[in-house]
Write a structure and sequence with these properties.
Layout: E1 2-8, E2 12-21, E3 24-34, H1 44-57, E4 65-70, E5 81-82, H2 85-93, H3 102-116, E6 122-126, H4 136-139, H5 145-151, H6 160-174, E7 183-188, E8 192-198, E9 201-205, H7 227-236, H8 240-249, H9 252-259, H10 264-288, H11 290-293, E10 305-310, H12 319-322, H13 324-339
Parallel strand pairs: 1-4, 4-6, 7-10
Antiparallel strand pairs: 1-2, 2-3, 5-6, 7-8, 8-9
Length: about 350
């Protein structure tokens, strides 16, 4: 059975043909299409058409099924889901919660329908799904409950596909059941997050309602005072949506770099300090909720394991993200956080 795996981003597309049999999976071919939105690749429809043409040029048969990575599944989608018109409509309604991610994902689904044929079954796999196990103390925001429930305002968490793989692969390497794994895992790329895992399940994570919350990222601000949105909107004479776009696209390490005039050394040192500070803040947040939601360190032999899941977004050109000294800043904060919870449940 040939499966086409599709990961649509706002400006790039990654696709892979996998031969799936009872004995396992074997990658056959990979295609990467970049600069979506340019004259050469005007939209995701053109990107999918180019990827499929590349696979045909390698004499590969048409896929029997297609899997799509979708970032935000909301409360509705917590497991892989067969895609139909109703699912597409619900995913479209979730686009405002992940504007950089869900819209390209839905565009990829529609493009595959056109170019691969409507009869080819397609399945959506959700980054939020792994975090469906978050306890209420972790997902509930301290806002009026009627507003939270009316509008679905809660922590969802992201990078779940990556975390699920990390748990599975680590369990395989140490020859233990995934249900026995306790760890602190980091996903470091252009988007970055940290997740506390107990018994192979997510119990807390740094990203929230949207992928904007949490750590300082490549272009995203991460945690900040919510009043900043209104202050900037008022002083700059723009709407809240424009400020949100700034926080998603012009902030994070990019914003820190710009403040330093783009000079590599100074920018790197400044971003370094920001990352270390953010790691300490996340550690403090987990210590405050330690009795309810941090991992049981005793189950991991008296300590919480720390695992790093790196993606292509964390490039060597960004040493403030990829350097070992920088990663240690995250690790120390989370190890201290986990140590405070030893023996709790």
């Amino acid at each position: 059975m040939l499966i086409l795996a599709v990961n649509c981003g706002s400006s790039s597309l990654k696709a892979q043909i996998i031969d799936a049999t009872a004995q396992g999976e074997r990658p056959l071919a990979r295609a990467v299409v970049e600069r979506i939105g340019s004259a050469e690749v005007p939209d995701h429809d053109a990107a999918i058409a180019r990827a499929l043409a590349e696979f045909r040029g390698r004499d590969l048969a048409a896929p029997d099924a297609i899997g799509h990575r979708i970032v935000h599944g909301g409360s509705r989608f917590t497991a892989p889901t067969l895609i139909d018109d109703g699912v597409i409509a619900e995913l479209t309604a979730l686009e405002d919660l992940a504007p950089l991610h869900n819209a390209p994902g839905v565009a990829g689904i529609r493009a595959c329908r056109r170019h691969a044929g409507g009869a080819t079954p397609m399945v959506a796999v959700f980054d939020t799904g792994f975090h469906a196990t978050l306890p209420e103390v972790a997902y509930r925001y301290a806002i009026p409950m009627d507003l939270a429930e009316r509008h679905g305002i809660r922590r969802y968490g992201f990078h779940g596909i990556s975390y699920a793989y990390v748990v599975s692969r680590y369990a395989e390497l140490v020859r233990r059941a995934p249900e026995s794994i306790d760890m602190i895992a980091l996903h470091l790329g252009n988007g970055a997050s940290i997740t506390a895992i107990r018994g192979g399940r997510s119990i807390d994570t740094s990203m929230g309602l949207t992928p904007l919350e949490g750590l300082v990222m490549g272009t995203r601000s991460g945690d900040l005072d919510p009043a900043i949105v209104e202050v900037l909107a008022r002083r700059e004479g723009v709407g809240a949506a424009e400020v949100e776009r700034w926080l998603n696209e012009r902030s994070g390490l990019l914003g820190l770099w710009a403040r330093c005039g783009g000079e590599r050394g100074r920018a790197g040192r400044h971003a370094d300090r920001g990352i270390r500070r953010r790691g300490r803040c996340v550690g403090r947040r987990h210590r405050r909720g330690a009795h309810d939601r941090a991992p049981d360190a005793d189950a991991a032999g008296g300590r919480a394991w720390l695992t790093r899941a790196s993606t292509a977004g964390a490039r060597a050109s960004a040493p403030s993200v990829t350097g070992g000294r920088r990663r240690t800043a995250f690790a120390r904060s989370w190890r201290r956080s986990a140590a405070t919870t030893r023996g709790t449940s």
